[in-house]
Design a protein that fits this description.
This protein is of the alpha/beta class and 160 residues long. The chain has one domain: HUPs (Rossmann fold). The chain is globular. It contains 6 helices and 5 strands; from the N terminus they run E-H-E-H-E-H-E-H-E-H-H. The model has no long low-confidence stretch (mean pLDDT 94).
């Protein structure tokens, strides 16, 4: 069974993230969405809330598992016996950082490969940061996130 791990902070999970999960399901037997603790960010949603929102967004996908993790990604890759890491590239500006991460992961865990996917065109400009900013300013963001995320983000709008 081929398994890919898709890590991220997912604060919040967007349709761009969902798009990558859906397409990865066609390439791998199992997709593990790994919600990460990122000490460099101040998340709107707790780790468990983010994990649960992704579970609710992927209910019709039996080969998708959602976990929370802390620490080095390569440790999660080893523990889950994943065959690869999935990362999304929206724009060329994402590539430099993602390449550095992929090379470091391969250095830390020999044979650890990273697969890059680009989102569908309609999701190519969507980011979690942008969604939070649009929500904070009172504009409609619902078309860019799965329904469970839209509901949760609407409830949190006053905290933005």
């Amino acid at each position: 069974m081929k398994t890919v791990i898709y890590p991220g902070s997912f604060d919040p999970f967007t349709n761009g993230h969902l798009d990558l999960v859906e397409r990865a399901r066609c390439l791998f037997d199992k997709v593990v969405v790994a919600v990460a603790v990122n000490s460099g960010k101040n998340p709107l949603f707790t780790l468990e809330e983010r994990r649960q929102l992704i579970v609710e967004s992927c209910t019709d996908m039996p080969n998708v598992e959602v976990i929370a993790f802390e620490g080095l990604l390569v440790n999660a890759v080893k523990e889950l016996k994943a065959d690869a890491i999935l990362r999304g590239l929206r724009a060329f500006s994402d590539f430099e950082y993602e390449l550095q991460m992929a090379l470091m992961n391969r250095e830390l865990l020999k044979g650890c490969e990273t697969i890059f996917l680009t989102p569908q065109l309609e999701n190519s400009y969507v980011s979690s940061t942008l969604i939070k900013e649009v929500a904070r300013l009172g504009a409609d963001f619902a078309a860019h996130v799965p329904p469970p995320v839209a509901r949760a983000l609407s409830r949190r709008r006053n905290l933005l």
